[in-house]
Amino acid sequence: MKIIEQGKLTNAVSGTPQSTYTFPNITPLSNGTVIASCRSGSAKDCADERIEFYRSKDDGHTWEKGTDVFRKVCVNGTAGSVKICYLTELDKGHVIAACMWVDRQTYPDKPLFNAKTEGCLPMKILVSDSYDYGETWTPMRIVPIPEEMGPPSLTGPILKLANGDLAMSIESNKHYEDNSKWLQKVVLLHSTDGGKSWNEPICVSEDLSGRVFYWDLRVGVLPDGRMAAFSWTYDSKANKYLNIHRRVSSDHGRTWESMDDLGFSDQPAHPAILPDGRMVLAWVDRFGSCSIRARMSPSIHEPFDSDTEVLIYDHGAAAPDTRDTGDLLNDMGIWTFGLPFGQLLPDGDIMVLYYAGTSELTNIHWARLRA
Question: How many C-beta atoms surround the C-beta of residue 295 within 10 A?
């Protein structure tokens, strides 16, 4: 596997609401275009954040900026911001947006994470539909999430399953002032009616002792219908990241096999799935090589071969040490590279998007890989 082209999607401007870009993702559409979305703001966590769209008519070689969307969204009269937006084309021209909304009114000017309690600001999951390839959008509607999940995090785009259902990956959090032990887990919600309603959650990963956290679950659906889920795994007692773990489901996410340690750490990307079942996984190694890399696996259960590894981004400086989980959550605000997202392009290449830069200025970058 090799990198054949690299570029930059955004043009950050210091001291403006477009100085910090994060949370990139990319979706090929049936009309031959490719659409990317990302979050912009004056800081990594801020009330002026918004979602920006970019479009490519040549399989991602060049990009044009579209309109900003989902800006200053109020939910039930409460002011907030949309931090994450993932897109999935359900049918020709019908694109569904899954968004994570942050309440900016209940705890005004407070950071997203509370370092003392390990809780986070109130959040909701919203969805909206477009029937013209993402040009215009319906009013947002709230996805009901069980109270036991706390403020829900969205960890990936809505998945189209082989049986016709949809699935959404949701991560639990603690409420902002909750001092109890954090019992984190990640679940899938299923929809049988095209995203109009969602069933009760099915657990994908959790540690009932509350020691190990499975953050940022990234899930891909293979051509044969099986699902592969990759976890950013953290040991809260040892205050360190473990290797990325993979789980496989053969029944549309209803049950999951035992976890598989991939042998490298720490934050996985959304996997790019090839038509023959091969998988390309990019990941962030913040505490070792301080880089973003990618490897390929020949099938859903096999290792990601180190001989296929490519270096996508070299940061050149180690991430800060953390004393406890609260410090780690606060440090997320100053980390300056990460959140890779992989996607197979219509021409057969793989594109990986990620953010990188400085604490004052980050852009969305892309790398085109060829197997």
Answer: 20
Contact in structure between 204 and 256 (CB atoms under 8 Å): yes
**How far is residue 199's CA from residue 190's CA, in Å, rounded to a whole number?**
5
Structure tokens at 262: 């991939």
Place of tokens 């197997």: 371
pLDDT in tens, 58-115: 999 999 998 878 888 999 999 999 999 999 999 999 999 999 999 999 999 999 999 8
Task: Report whether 136 contacts 130 (CB < 8 A).
Answer: yes
DSSP three-state, residue 320: coil
The pLDDT tens digits of the residues spanning 15-35 come to: 999 999 999 999 999 999 999
Q: Taking the alpha carbons of 94, 100, 105, 106 in that order, is the dihedral positive or negative?
A: positive
Q: Coil, strand, or helix at residue 292?
A: strand
3-state secondary structure of 326: helix
Whether the bond into 266 is cis, omega within 30 of 0: yes
Q: Which residues make Cβ contacts (< 8 Å) with residue 332, sequence separation at least 6?
A: 44, 113
Partnered with residue 154 across adjacent β-strands are 170
Q: Which of 287, 328, 289, 330 is nearest to 312 (CA)?
A: 289
Q: Count CA atoms closer than 13 A to 363's CA, side-chain side.
A: 11
* Residue (of 127, 140, 115) closest to 87 by Cα position: 127
* DSSP H helical ranges for the chain: 325-331
Task: Look up residue 247 and give its two tokens.
Answer: 């789980």
**What tokens does 25 get?**
């993702």
CB-count burial class (<10 Å; 0-12, 13-18, 19+) for 3: middle
